[in-house]
Amino acid sequence: MDIIELKKIAKRIRLSTMQMLEKAGTGHPGGALSMVEILVTLYFEKMNIKPHEPNWKYRDRLILSKGHGNPSYYAVLSEKGYFAKEKLSTLRQYGSILQGHPDMNTTPGVDMSTGSLGQGLSIGCGMAIAAHMQHEKFRVYVIVGDGELDEGQNWEALMSAVKYKLDNLTLIVDYNKLQINGSNEDVMGIAPLDKKFAAFNWNVIRINGHDFRDIRNALEMACSTSGRPTVIIADTIKGKGISFMENNPIWHGKIPDRVQFEKIFRELEGDI
Amino acid sequence: MTAAKIATRESYGNALVELYKKHNNIIVLDADLAAATKTGIFKKAVPDRHYDCGIAEANMMGIAAGISTTGLVPFVSTFAMFAAGRAFEQVRNSIGYPHLNVKIGATHAGISVGEDGATHQCNEDIALMRTIPGMVVINPSDDIEARAAVEAAYNYDGPVYMRFGRLAIPIINDKPSYKFEIGKGVVMRAGKDATIIATGLCVGASIEAAEKMAQKGLDVGVINIHTIKPIDKELVIEAAQKTGKIITVEEHSIIGGLGSAVCEVLSENCPTPVLRIGVNDCFGHSGPAVGLLHEFGLDAEGIDKKVSEYLK
């Protein structure tokens, strides 16, 4: 797909994301905004999927381990046609198909229920093992937040992905450097991520997570790597696209006020 | 009852081999305990379907969840302590919440683990697992029931927790009429004075205890509740109505396990005095399994003593 087109889609996704959060009145803007280009590239260019047949057996899978970032994920799924766009305004409300964290049983297109951090990569390993065992060609993508790398289960999963030679598994780290209590390095310290993943024998690629060419090339390299899994460390900006939200940890789980939303929509709509 | 004794963990390993002969979409996961959980028996028979996930139970539960989404049926195996305890939240959120078709084979449950002591004697797993919505909890009472449970778990669509023991125990379900059905309790012995409702290895011990009591003129019935969730409400209520006194016996904490489940049913449907026999809100310790069961009053002698006293 043309890069200009991908950029247009990303802008629409950011606008939808903020509209959803405004309506919901609760949710997590920062991490939803930092992974928009990653999601758009995966769903509009890379993944082999049939939105009219969400449970198609041979589809590529995506696990959003950082489940709290789901507004942009839901916006992408809706843009792809998994469900009607009107549903987006029901996010986090009674009876909604769009739960506060992804639920595979209520939202078409969601491949795994997530939200409790640190569990997605293990599940991705399981799907990738099953694909290998059944000689199926589908690929498995897992998006983790950088903050959730504090969870030890990730490092258990990293070992098992190498043991089972899961070259059909691609891990993408939305490396926006911030988590609830502040910077990754102040909260726990996860750096140097590239060296850690390399020491675990993963194929490591580092990119600008807002650059479509970078993302596209990295996903391609992951596909052509055999015998071991690939991790794409995507340097991103938390709150990307909204001037006053960028790189500020307070926007992890905070909803803007009315005046701020007006500014947000001026910025985002001006873009489109 | 026959003289042959077999541990239900051994039944589990054997049953997996038999199951694979009929259903080749199963896959067995283990966490560096294949010799102890007896999935080693399956590994020997079907090596390419046995996955050793290392000493990393949380990750193993996630892998099982992922595998199950593709239509394969994973049997995840480790000690009860680590399946229900360490990996509780993974079982709850990655398996229970999405209601995935994962079968958990948890061995080394209860104090009959023996010499390994308190850290490995899980007396809390039934309590933990039965709080998860949609989770089936099965605690078989002998080899025959354990093997039937594995097959039934496969045929059930959804998460199942199966509890197996380390200690070899007698076979008690060898009647030709024996039939295993998830959620259906089994009347092992009729009685008029009171009913013992037992689970797991305590069923055999309770039958023996009832026989001892019969010699003293006490007519005590025994019900085997192999499925603690969903529990056989009708049978429990019927026993309470018929005998007016209920005693629960389990190799598990008296908090949250079979005793609690029976009390929940009766308090809402047929308030009845219940004596709960089990591990009395304390940790176990090292010792031979049989000695520990005696010490904790969970062998025939102990059950006989407590129940006889209760019925005085």
**Pattern of helices and strands of chain A:** HHHEHHEHEEEHHEHEH
The best one-word shape of chain A is globular
Structural class of chain B: alpha/beta
Strand order of the largest sheet of chain B: 3-2-4-5-7-6-12
Find the CATH superfamily of the largest domain in chain B: Thiamin diphosphate (ThDP)-binding fold, Pyr/PP domains
Oligomer: heterodimer
Radius of gyration of chain B: 18 Å
As laid out across the biggest beta sheet of chain A, the strand order is 1-2-3-7-6
What is the molecular shape of chain B? Answer: globular
The rounded distance between the terminal residues' Cα atoms of chain B is: 29 Å
User: Beta-sheet strand percentage of chain B?
Assistant: 15-25%
Protein name (chain A): Transketolase
Cofactor (chain A): thiamine diphosphate
InterPro entries (chain A): THDP-binding, Transketolase_N
Family (chain A): Belongs to the transketolase family.
List keywords for this structure.
heterodimer; A: 272 residues; alpha/beta; Rossmann fold; five-stranded parallel β-sheet; two-stranded antiparallel sheet; B: 312 residues; 2 domains; seven-stranded mixed β-sheet; five-stranded mixed β-sheet; 14 strands; Transketolase_N (chain A); THDP-binding (chain A)
Structure description:
The complex is a heterodimer of chains A (272) and B (312). Chain A is α/β, with parallel strands linked by helices and 272 residues long. Chain A has one domain: 3-Layer(aba) Sandwich (Rossmann fold). Helix content of chain A is 41%, strand content 12%. Chain A is built from ten helices and seven strands. Chain A has a five-stranded parallel β-sheet with strand order 1-2-3-7-6, with helices on both faces. A two-stranded antiparallel sheet of chain A has the order 4-5. In chain A, helix 3 (36-46) crosses helix 9. The mean pLDDT of chain A is 97. Chain B has 312 residues and is an alpha/beta fold. Chain B folds into two domains: 5-170, Rossmann fold (3-Layer(aba) Sandwich), CATH 3.40.50.970; 186-311, Rossmann fold. In chain B, 41% of the residues lie in helices and 21% in strands. Chain B contains 13 helices and 14 strands. Chain B has helices at 8-22, 34-37, 39-45, 57-68, 80-86, 88-96, 125-130, 143-155, 202-215, 233-243, 258-269, 289-295, 300-310, and strands at 2-6, 26-30, 50-52, 73-79, 103-107, 136-138, 160-163, 169-171, 186-189, 194-198, 220-224, 227-229, 246-253, 274-279. In chain B, strands 3-2-4-5-7-6-12 form a seven-stranded mixed β-sheet, with helices on both faces. In chain B, helix 1 (8-22) runs parallel beside helix 3 and helix 1 (8-22) crosses helix 8. The model of chain B has no long low-confidence stretch (mean pLDDT 97). Classes of the chains: A alpha/beta (272), B alpha/beta (312). The A-B interface holds A 57, 61, 103-105, 111-113, 115-116, 119-131, 133-134, 136, 140, 152-153, 156-157, 159-160, 163-164 and B 27, 51, 53-54, 56, 58-72, 74, 89-90, 93-94, 97-99.
